[in-house]
């Protein structure tokens, strides 16, 4: 498995940046995890749309979903040019319903709903889900090829009940939206970089990638917030970063 960061910023990208989007490639296909602002053009740097097997959406907040209509235009054009001839699958939650409905676009894309009990087999990997603490229906994803395991934590507040979902994974892609000094007092459904590091340590994750970063907070602030709390291999997300086995 190989995962490439296409974008990682929230809620709006900085200059030349991109919202959340991660390209997972296997021997059998390619899956896009979330589709934020500028993710489609970043995706095109790696493969044409007809080579993408599926999209899996964690949830439908604007920063994660806003390039889906553009991806749908990409599928439409590839279909018209006879590079694609089947309905393209977008896996996603069923709520909010009006957003779930937007995953369907004429004969080009369709929504395949999942929930916490679903187990998907796509592109040679198994994907399972955990509902997170967030203001809309949102799911973390555990992806395994039977040898290595990636957990993408999606958007997750401090009250997410992780159980053993993250335990012993090879890579934990965890949001650290805030730094501890800048964290709001109310639960906004997000973690700090420090909480991401602590969660990775508690879960014995072998590697941590802290993501969902604000372009308005300096990277060194995120780094110093997390550094003392996880002693494995870790880094902040950056566009083009690749982790592979
Ligand atoms: Zn969100």
Fold topology:
Layout: E1 2-7, E2 21-26, E3 29-33, H1 39-44, E4 54-56, H2 62-65, H3 68-80, E5 88-92, H4 97-101, E6 109-113, E7 119-122, E8 125-131, E9 139-144, E10 149-152, E11 171-175, H5 193-202, E12 207-211, H6 219-226, E13 233-236, E14 242-244
Parallel strand pairs: 3-4, 4-5, 5-6, 10-11, 11-12, 12-13
Antiparallel strand pairs: 1-2, 1-14, 2-3, 7-8, 8-9, 9-10
Helix pairs in contact: 5-6
Bound molecules: zinc ion (ZN).
Zinc ion binds at residues 59, 61, 134, 155.
Question: Explain this structure to me?
Answer:
There is one protein chain. This protein has 245 residues and is of the alpha/beta class. The chain has a single domain, classed as Metallo-beta-lactamase, Chain A. Helices cover 19% and strands 28% of the residues. The protein has 6 helices and 14 strands. It has helices at residues 39-44, 62-65, 68-80, 97-101, 193-202, 219-226, and strands at 2-7, 21-26, 29-33, 54-56, 88-92, 109-113, 119-122, 125-131, 139-144, 149-152, 171-175, 207-211, 233-236, 242-244. The strands form 2 sheets. Strands 6-5-4-3-2-1-14 form a 7-stranded mixed sheet. Strand 11 (171-175), helix 5 and strand 12 form a beta-alpha-beta unit. Helix 5 (193-202) runs parallel beside helix 6. The model has no long low-confidence stretch (mean pLDDT 98). It binds zinc ion.
């Amino acid at each position: 498995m190989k995962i490439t960061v296409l974008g990682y910023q929230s809620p709006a990208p900085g200059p030349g940046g991109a919202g959340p989007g991660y390209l997972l490639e296997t021997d059998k296909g390619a899956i896009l995890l979330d589709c934020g602002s500028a993710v489609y053009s970043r995706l095109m740097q790696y493969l044409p749309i007809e080579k993408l097997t599926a999209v899996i959406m964690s949830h439908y907040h604007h920063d994660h979903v806003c390039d889906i209509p553009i991806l749908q235009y990409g599928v439409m054009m590839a279909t018209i040019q006879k590079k694609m001839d089947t309905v393209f699958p977008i896996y996603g939650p069923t709520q909010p319903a009006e957003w779930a409905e937007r995953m369907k676009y004429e004969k080009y894309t369709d929504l395949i709903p999942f929930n916490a009990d679903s187990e998907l087999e796509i592109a040679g990997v198994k994907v399972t889900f955990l509902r997170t603490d967030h203001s809309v229906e949102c799911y973390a994803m555990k992806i395994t090829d039977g040898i290595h395991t990636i957990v993408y934590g999606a958007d997750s507040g401090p009250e997410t009940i992780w159980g053993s979902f993250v335990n012993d994974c090879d890579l934990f892609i965890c949001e650290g939206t805030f730094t501890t000094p800048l964290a709001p007092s109310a639960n906004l459904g997000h973690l700090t970089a420090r909480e991401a590091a602590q969660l990775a340590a508690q879960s014995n994750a072998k590697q941590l990638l802290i993501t969902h970063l604000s372009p308005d907070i300096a990277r060194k602030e995120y780094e110093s917030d997390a550094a003392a709390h996880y002693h494995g291999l870790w880094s902040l997300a950056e566009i083009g970063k690749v982790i592979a086995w």
